[in-house]
């Protein structure tokens, strides 16, 4: 009968009840006490027999059933990690995992924060409910932003077009067809001055999503805010500044990794020293998911990358308790495997806390606590039968909440697989979060799934595997070296291929795609089409700017940037001077190209 | 040299413009390799001119362009035209990724041989190429 | 034939097609070689070899840039491993040489090993002849990075550049015999990394031992440093390549190596062809006997060659 349960069943002898109950000092001697003070003797006797009972159950009850009703999968594995899933988890599994409540979980708001970084979970405040909607470009962005502020939002996200994020001006032939499509076209301070025609009394938080040319972008935003007379203390600017993840996936980088890290650290240092209420980094671990990273890779890669930023910032003369609270912003998604998602969040909190304590000796809670923005992943959504996606989003949002949704949750739109955001989709996405928050009760107690034999086993497995992977990366010399060697790219390339095969060969069922497919379904892909004249206008605008500005002042400012780049000085101050003289985005990025060179990567296609 | 077994199919994969999503092209590249084809990957941020130059030097039979942004209605026809000008129009030009229905006729008209939208089973792509190749070989020996 | 004439004229598509024929073993490839052979022997063939992770492609990219700055026309043959199971390959070396794609003075060809061991493909030699005939001054052969079995390139190239990198273990650092004895120029790439000094010392030691064991050797292999990703070291490497060329010219070595290379190629072709003919003649039956262990290999070969018509 044991064979029918697969290789994963490991009957073990005694459960050491004393260990499991370490926190409980009330070892009653005799019998007959009511409620929670059950005599420990009787418990010990029962658990001694647990493994035996489990074997008996499998032989007498489950086994015969399975003999007549074969299992529907072989093997049962988790979706991303492909770890075996046993039919049943019991206290024996916790015993084997070495689980200990106080060491592994602790209490909310206390090290190691596994159950929650918040002392009262979501009982005082829910997570901030946000949504991503497409942002327009330039004046259009401004109009949309003003509308959203009027609707009561107090935070906005500023995204840029591919020309900008790759470090080109709008009139550069390299970026033909890209200007203003994926976000705002930012060629010079002029563009931001126009965009920042906003009621800053309502706008309290701005996230600027830029990576490769971050010092240039940061300088532009600071200069634009100055021009608007905004008090930087009264306002939070959050720059994504996440260049290292761009090397591993997505690919919006310009310079070689060590220079990319250096200029990112310039921005981090500048903000810590000059604008301590701002946030200089967001590690968007979620970006690894479309690249098919599994949960262990998500945790390990993004934490190793965080360490690279931390190490670089520590070298600037700051200490860990100062630095870590600035560099602990993560964006983490869940996928459809419910328990992998929940356990990933718990493991993430614990891993960050352990890393800060064990590797760096951090002591302040602000340094030991991770900050997460969470979300259902769009990679789980299908083009086919889009209404199914509402169900998927609801399930994933629930997993987020059960995992501890962190500071904020975002719900993508159910229609997001390349269609225009329709009003219904926006409304449904927002409502979903409220339904999870108010109707399900999952957030009424803190970390309700704790103690589940499966959940705790899986959480510990993820934690152990993540640390093993991190050790591998540290042995290579850290995340930057691993990027240079193409380690992440190759690992992700392999995952991409394998996961795609799982779907094509039916090992993973995806409703609408390879299961319950509607044969006659015709799904229209709509993409956002831009008026081509917009690109021409923007190109003309930047050309006109170059013609009328004080070229001598610009050249002098660019030379200062060049020198700072060569000498290793912080690039933000000279960039600030240059953008005020109306040096363009592309010009500044090119100066850095001269000094740093350009990165040509190992592709994910190399090395299977 | 081994007995002549016929040509081995060579496929060039590239991404045009600023779009850097590589998952689709990675999956297809591996699938083609598993099918015994040689895959030449030219990288990201390619211009149509670069793709044509590489395609000629590598004497590829098929060119696969992956596109997720909206520039394809300009860049793909340009690529097709440059291939013709270089005398390389016998190379099959494939487009894959996010391509709306209404753009397909334009692309096919301009010289794209076949379009595989996102989510196409890689086994279908391999089968298509093998069949195309077999037909081409047969036509050449006639 | 059109292809041969066109490629002697420097036409890219013709040269590319000829290389494909040779790579596939198409009989037309052999015909092309017959026609262009007289037009070859001029190009300086440079091998670039080293363990995986040494940064050969980036280094090649840098060397090509420097050669172009000196007005040399350069062909590159970049070899990557083919899958032993499917025969397919992902040939990704071009990615790191993208900036030369549009330069008409550069021709880059990616080739899969297609089952050959030794770091090269069976067609590499002929591909070099094609590029030679097309008029390229230098032909760079960038081998697969498999470690210490890369002897083949040494026989093929006039000048072999061995690339090492800090941080690899002893066994991968090509410290083993063979490759280290045969290279002419040694480069420690990624010299900005930890472990550079140690790697350099390793090479120095080996080169010293080599020098001692070859008192008659007139060429002193330079040990250079490079950080190819930052474009450092290219000038020195190309200087060394040119110096080696001058040395070969002065000692008659250039022609000698060119000749020896062709002799080796002829022998290789002969081996393959004879084996094929013998087996085709005798059928698989004799080899089947060997596989069933009813016949030993020596007797089998006597029978096979005895049956040569």
Keywords:
heterotrimer; A: 608 residues; mainly alpha; TIM Barrel; 3 domains; 4-stranded parallel beta sheet; 3-stranded parallel beta sheet; disordered N terminus; B: 142 residues; alpha/beta; Rossmann fold; 5-stranded parallel beta sheet; 5 strands; 44% helix
Describe this structure in words.
The complex is a heterotrimer of chains A (608), B (142) and C (309). Chain A has 608 residues and is mainly alpha-helical. Chain A contains 24 helices and seven strands. In chain A, the strands form two sheets. In chain A, strands 1-7-6-5 form a four-stranded parallel beta sheet, with helices on one face. Chain A has a three-stranded parallel beta sheet with strand order 2-3-4. Chain B has 142 residues and is α/β, with parallel strands linked by helices. Chain B has a single domain (14-125), classed as Cobalamin-binding domain (Rossmann fold), CATH 3.40.50.280. In chain B, α1 (23-34) crosses α5 and α2 runs parallel beside α3 (72-85). Chain C starts with a helix and ends with a helix. Chain C is globular and about 60 Å long. Chain C has twelve helices and eight strands. Chain C has three domains: 1-37, no CATH class; 40-251, Rossmann fold (3-Layer(aba) Sandwich); 266-306, no CATH class. Chain C has 309 residues and is an alpha/beta fold. In chain C, strands 4-2-5-1-6-7-8 form a seven-stranded parallel beta sheet, with helices on both faces. In chain C, β6, α7 (179-182) and β7 form a beta-alpha-beta unit. Chain C has helices at 2-8, 12-24, 27-36, 56-69, 124-134, 151-156, 179-182, 196-213, 234-251, 253-282, 285-291, 297-306; strands spanning 44-49, 74-80, 89-91, 106-112, 138-142, 159-164, 185-188, 223-225. In chain C, α1 (2-8) packs across α3 and α2 crosses α3. Classes of the chains: A mainly alpha (608), B alpha/beta (142), C alpha/beta (309). β2 of chain B pairs parallel with β3 (89-91) of chain C.
């Amino acid at each position: 009968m044991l064979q029918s349960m697969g290789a994963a069943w490991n009957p073990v002898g005694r459960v050491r009840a004393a260990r499991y109950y370490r926190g409980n000092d009330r070892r009653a001697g005799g019998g007959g006490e009511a409620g929670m003070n059950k005599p420990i003797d009787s418990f010990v006797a029962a658990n001694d027999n647990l493994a035996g009972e489990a074997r008996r159950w499998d032989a007498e009850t489950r086994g015969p059933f399975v003999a007549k009703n074969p299992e529907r999968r072989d093997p049962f594995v988790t979706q991303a990690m492909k770890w075996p899933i046993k039919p049943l988890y019991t206290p024996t599994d916790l015993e084997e995992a070495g689980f200990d409540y106080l060491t592994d979980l602790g209490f909310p708001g206390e090290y190691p924060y596994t159950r929650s970084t918040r002392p009262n979970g979501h009982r005082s405040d829910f997570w901030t409910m946000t949504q991503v909607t497409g942002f327009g470009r330039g004046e259009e962005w401004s109009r949309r932003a003003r509308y959203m502020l009027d609707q009561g939002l107090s935070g906005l996200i500023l995204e840029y077009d591919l020309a900008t994020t790759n470090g080109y001006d709008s009139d550069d032939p390299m970026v033909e067809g890209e200007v203003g499509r994926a976000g705002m076209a930012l060629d010079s301070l002029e563009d931001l001055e126009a965009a920042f025609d906003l009621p800053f009394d309502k706008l309290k938080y701005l996230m600027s999503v830029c990576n490769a040319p971050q010092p240039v972008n940061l300088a532009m935003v600071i200069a634009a805010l100055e021009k608007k007379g905004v008090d930087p203390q009264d306002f939070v600017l959050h720059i994504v500044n996440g260049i290292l993840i761009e090397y591993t996936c997505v690919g919006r980088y310009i310079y070689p990794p060590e220079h990319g890290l250096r200029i990112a650290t310039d921005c981090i240092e500048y903000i810590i020293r000059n604008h301590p209420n701002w946030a200089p980094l967001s590690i968007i671990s979620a970006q690894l998911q479309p690249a098919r990273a599994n949960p262990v890779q998500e945790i390990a890669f993004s934490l190793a990358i965080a360490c690279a930023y931390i190490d670089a910032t520590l070298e600037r003369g700051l200490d860990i308790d100062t630095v870590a609270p600035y560099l602990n912003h993560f964006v983490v998604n869940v996928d459809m495997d419910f328990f992998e998602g929940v356990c990933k969040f718990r493991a993430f909190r614990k891993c960050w806390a352990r890393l800060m304590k064990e590797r760096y000796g951090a002591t302040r809670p602000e340094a030991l606590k991770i900050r997460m923005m969470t979300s259902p992943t769009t990679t789980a959504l299908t083009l086919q039968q889009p209404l199914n996606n509402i169900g998927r989003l609801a399930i994933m949002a629930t997993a987020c909440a059960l995992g501890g949704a962190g500071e904020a949750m975002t719900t993508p739109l159910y229609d997001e697989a390349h269609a225009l955001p329709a009003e219904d989709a926006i409304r449904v996405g927002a409502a979903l979060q409220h339904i999870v928050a108010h109707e399900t009760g999952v957030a009424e107690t803190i970390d309700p799934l704790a103690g589940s034999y499966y959940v705790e086993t899986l959480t510990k497995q993820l934690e152990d595997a993540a640390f093993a992977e991190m050790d591998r990366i540290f042995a290579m010399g850290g995340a930057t070296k691993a990027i240079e060697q193409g380690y992440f790219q190759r690992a992700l390339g392999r995952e991409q291929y394998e996961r795609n095969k799982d779907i094509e060969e039916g090992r993973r069922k995806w409703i609408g795609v390879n299961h319950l497919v509607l044969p006659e379904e015709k799904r229209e892909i709509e993409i956002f089409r831009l008026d081509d004249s917009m690109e021409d206008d923007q190109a003309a605008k930047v050309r006109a700017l170059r013609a009328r500005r004080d070229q001598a002042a610009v050249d002098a400012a660019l030379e200062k940037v060049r020198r700072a780049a060569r000498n290793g000085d912080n690039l933000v101050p000279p960039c600030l001077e240059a953008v005020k003289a109306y040096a363009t985005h592309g010009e500044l990025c090119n100066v850095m190209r001269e000094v740093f060179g350009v990165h040509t990567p190992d592709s994910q296609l190399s090395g299977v | 040299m081994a007995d002549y077994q016929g040509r081995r199919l060579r496929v060039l994969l590239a991404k045009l413009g600023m779009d850097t999503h590589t998952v689709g092209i990675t999956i297809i590249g591996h699938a083609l390799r598993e099918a015994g084809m040689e895959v030449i990957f030219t990288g990201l941020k390619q211009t149509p001119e670069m793709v044509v130059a590489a395609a000629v030097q590598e004497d590829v039979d098929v060119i696969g362009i992956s596109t997720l942004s909206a520039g394809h209605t300009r860049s793909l026809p340009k690529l097709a035209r440059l291939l013709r000008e270089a005398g390389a129009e016998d190379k099959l030009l494939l487009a894959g990724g996010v391509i709306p229905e209404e753009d397909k006729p334009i692309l096919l008209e301009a010289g794209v041989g076949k379009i595989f939208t996102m989510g196409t089973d890689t086994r279908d792509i391999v089968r298509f190429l093998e069949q195309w190749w077999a037909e081409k070989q047969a036509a050449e020996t006639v | 034939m059109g292809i041969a004439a066109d490629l002697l004229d420097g036409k890219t598509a013709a040269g590319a097609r000829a290389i494909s024929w040779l790579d596939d073993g198409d009989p037309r490839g052999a015909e092309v070689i017959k026609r262009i052979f007289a037009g070859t022997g001029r190009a300086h063939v440079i091998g670039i070899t080293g363990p995986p992770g040494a940064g050969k492609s980036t280094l090649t990219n840098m060397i090509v840039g420097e050669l172009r700055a000196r007005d040399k026309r350069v062909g590159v043959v970049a070899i990557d491993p083919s899958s032993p199971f499917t025969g397919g390959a992902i040939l990704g070396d071009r990615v790191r040489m993208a900036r030369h794609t549009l330069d008409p003075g550069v021709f880059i060809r990616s080739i899969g090993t297609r089952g050959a061991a030794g770091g090269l493909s069976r067609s590499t030699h002929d591909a070099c002849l094609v590029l030679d005939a097309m008029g390229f001054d230098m032909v760079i052969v960038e081998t697969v990075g498999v470690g210490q079995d890369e002897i083949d390139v040494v026989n093929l190239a006039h000048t072999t550049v061995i690339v090492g990198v800090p941080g690899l273990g002893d066994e991968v650092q090509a410290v083993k015999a063979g490759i280290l004895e045969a290279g002419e120029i040694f480069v420690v790439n990624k010299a900005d990394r930890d472990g550079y000094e140690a790697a350099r010392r390793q090479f120095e030691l080996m080169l010293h031992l080599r020098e001692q064991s070859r008192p008659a050797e007139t060429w002193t292999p330079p040990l250079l440093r490079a950080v190819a990703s930052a474009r450092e070291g290219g000038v020195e490497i190309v200087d060394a390549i040119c110096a080696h060329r001058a040395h070969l010219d002065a000692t008659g070595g250039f022609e000698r190596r060119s000749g020896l290379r062709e002799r080796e190629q002829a022998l290789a072709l002969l081996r393959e062809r004879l084996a094929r003919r013998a087996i085709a003649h005798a059928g698989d039956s004799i080899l089947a006997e060997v596989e069933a262990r009813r016949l030993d290999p020596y007797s089998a070969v006597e029978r096979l060659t005895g049956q040569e018509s």
